[in-house]
## 1
Amino acid sequence: MGHVKGLICKECKREYAQEPIHVCEFCFGPLEVNYDYEAIKKVVTKQSIESGPPSMWRYEALLPLDEAPKVGLHTGFTPLVRAKNLGKALGLSHLYLKNDSVNHPTFSFKDRVVSVAISKAIEFGFDTISCASTGNLANSVAAQAAEAGLKSCIFIPDGLEAGKILGTLVYGAQLISVKGSYDDVNRLCSEIGVNHNWAFVNINIRPYYGDGSKSYGYEIAEQLGWKTPDNVVVPVAGSSLITKIWKAFHEFEMLGLVDKVQTKIFAAQATGCSPVTTAIKNGSENIIPVKPNTIAKSIAIGNPADGYYGIKTANASGGYGEDISDEEIVSAMKLLAETEGVFTETAGGVTVGVTQKLVQQGRIKPDEVTVICITGNGLKTQEALADCFSAPAVIEAKIDSFEEIFSNDLALNGLH
Ligand SMILES: *Cc1c(COP(=O)(O)O)cnc(C)c1O
Ligand SMILES: [Zn+2]
């Protein structure tokens, strides 16, 4: 604990004290947490991590808190699933799923960033937590603010899935639906922040929030037996997760916990909102903002805050970016459920479907160790599958009724 020296500008390297700020006053670059790696090297070993709790807090020395975490004590350390059946379907012999669809407490990767952001907000003395969200962040902020006994005021674009809305309201949060896209909501929140002294987890608390994502990368490496994989396929919204998985692997390399990192990082988006993968495919480092139009609402950010760094991460690693249609997203969600028994949300359909495409393109090779990021839970985006299945057969509670349907239908479906 207490390995944070302050903040540092990612561009001009100017240093700042620890404060709830996120932009450099001099060059307008984003601020990052500035760690005392010399001190960290003295205390972090494989053994020190392995003897920690079965949660993301086993990496506490590498996370930006000065005090013990206040919320999300059970967040993280989600399963790394060996996906033999899906691997067979995709033609990959060493395929894994990093499954945050079962993360505690709100079933998405966002629980990691929020547990850090709210713990930090408490250190700063805030009593109200806020955010602009595409849905999962709203769920996690509402839940963990409730756990902390803090107030929350949460902003979402209109038209989100019912599960994301109810999954926010249930915690007693103040929820505001804004007419517009996520990018409109985000801009509005920046303006609200001028008048209201709130902790906006992904705006003024963003440098700390972002580092919560590092735990997802640490876990992949530790759970592979202190190895980094050949490929990781990452869903991209604001580009926090993709840059922080890369950062996590390189911190582990610097600490001598893994060998030289040779992982290719692949960005995955929905074609209906693909500013990052489009730039990668065009060989450009600049985001051209888009107006989102996709069922993958949780990753529908048209003007991503860290998009430039997301592009750079994929390129620097030797990876690539791909996107798939809404139809392909639905097929991939079903394929994952049918092969591995994992029901992911639309963003997980994006990473599974994009992986399939990358294998077909020869960018991911059959025998390479490949990790697909599954970052959210399918029960929250049921609308996406609304047209896929007919209602279950209804019968009387009588054996004749069953045998009738059995000989008419079930036998044809392979039951005997
Ligand atoms: C937020 C989110 C992501 C990625 O978010 P970044 O802003 O790129 O870090 C991925 N998957 C799901 C399900 C999300 O909710
Ligand atoms: Zn700067």
## 2
Amino acid sequence: MPLHIQTPLLTSQPLSLAAGASVLLKLDALQPAGSFKIRGIGYACEEYARRGKRRFISSSGGNAGIAVAYAARRLGLPAIVIVPQTTTQRAKDLIALEGAEVIVHGATWQEANGKALSLVGETDAFIHPFDDPLLWTGHATVIDEIVAAGEEPDAVVLSVGGGGLLCGVHEGLRRNGLAHVPIIAVETEGAASLAQSVKAGRRIELDAIRSVATSLGAKQVSEQAFALAMTADIRPVTVTDHAAVTACKRFLDDHRVLVEPACGASLAPVYDHAAVLNGFSKVLVIVCGGVGVTAFQLDQFLAAA
Ligand SMILES: *Cc1c(COP(=O)(O)O)cnc(C)c1O
């Protein structure tokens, strides 16, 4: 039994009307641990446990850290999540709630990550939030479920942070004979590490993240994500923070599901009938989810954006 669940797939009338195309929603916001991340991280943790690893170490204070903690609890193994001082109390509480040990170390994620790496012993597995082929293989199950449901989208919309979801969805399309289906890869403007890399023709590193979509805040995408973007039909799109948060609020009203701005980024071009979707008749949106915001915070973001 995998650690993720098979999530609902539904045709959204409000989003279909907004986009002028049939819009399918894959509701990975309903995964245990609150995001798609458990697909890949659950698969990787199971595989590392099978190879004899006895403990998991992560440095993500976000959905990846929560997924590692959840996977460890389900597998009956300990997990340590090392986070920087900037991590919110809410994030630390959510990780601790899953039974993992939370250690606060350093002022930045780089420092926390350095500490995490220094703790990795021979029987430990370090779980990267996006750059591990095992993660991509696990994330690919999201496409297996679409195909098993008898659906064949003519475009897939997803959000990009470090590009783990992108690599996984591409692997899923490929292993189901759908490698030709274009992927609309959405980032917020202040976290556009993929879009800027594609534009520059090389894998750039952002000097800072300037977005409320913190789960998209990888300064640099993985080599694999960049290579895919240069060779497969991947179309980078950027949206404003305001558009991402507005989409979260509309989605909450329309479908009664609260998602992070990182996920709202994918919903924004659909709600806004963006030109990038012209010509498609069946658009699949990966509703990647995220537990990092409250409804109250969305209003605060909107007031500030
Ligand atoms: C991690 C995450 C992303 C980005 O995924 P990558 O694999 O880093 O590209 C998007 N949305 C949510 C909610 C996430 O947790």
## 3
Amino acid sequence: MPSKIQAAALLGALVSSINAHGHLSSIKVDGTTYTAYDPSFQYQNPVPEVIEWSCPECLDNGFVDPTMYNDVTKIACHKDATAGAKVATVKAGGSIDIQWTTWPDSHVGPVIDYMAKVDDATSATSKELNFFKIDEAGYENGQWAATKLIANNLTWSITVPENIAAGQYVLRHEIIALHSAGQADGAQNYPKCINLEVTGSGTENPTGETADKFYTATDPGILVNVYSGDLSSYQIPGPALFDGASSGSGSSSSTAAASSAAAPTATSSVASSPATSAPVATSSAAVENNAVSSSTLVVSATPTTATSVPTETGSSSSGEKEFTLDTFIAWLEEKAGSSSSTKVRRHPRAF
Ligand SMILES: *[C@@H]1O[C@H](CO)[C@@H](O)[C@H](O)[C@H]1NC(C)=O
Ligand SMILES: [Cu+2]
């Protein structure tokens, strides 16, 4: 049986060889489908021009964590992101469907959308984006918003508020993954920004704030253990929805994006992928689709015993973290880019 140190080294190898998270694949704006940004665009010449902001540092599909919450160049539109070269036109009251390439089931958490009015979206910088929140969804009807997104063909649907003034805006779409959020700085923010030109006769110019004002490391919706307690009282972090949000997509907290999302939810993603289970006390990992494909990793962990493993790619530090069994299994799952929606706690999956 490998020692903890050896296990950590093996897991480190997994971290560097598996791309667990997704990025946006496409953005449908009032019926027109636009290509999203792909971090590999930086290797193309010319670099494709898209409506989404660019993030060359996002090759690892990584995240922004609470240690970066007061750095607007990171938390606004992801790490050092710069404005997209194009702008998509949408009517006030129109719809936007944002599709991700993939999302790990273990990465439960809220989905939140903001907009910021700008003079010219193609030359805006993160420091000047004064965002107001247009929609939010946390844990509702026994389901996390991120889980709903996966079930809806990896798509989140937004209604542009009907009453906002015409002009250019930057839309900020964000998933916050909470699978490790029971530990300090364990939350993972995945913000994406998109350039819009809103048309119509709205008159509202909601007050916004820069993204470095949104969250703190100890907000109840950021530092939260999602493996115990009453999730129905989960508090979505960030500012309140702007006053006019309700006239757009409907915005009680049962909300907005959720109600305009097409697919029903509860069982679909479970049914679509066979659950595989592994013994609880020992997680056996045979990685199928990457560089370490023929290796088998056996890590022993027992309930309530903390196991020390490296932090994942995208984290701000390269130190080690203490994991409980639950968060450790979630961590293993995410390394594998799990697509099963099997409950993490009950069916740690072999991958
Ligand atoms: C899901 O999205 C993919 C990619 O856009 C699309 O080809 C497919 O038809 C969608 N599936 C459903 C059920 O809408
Ligand atoms: Cu992750």
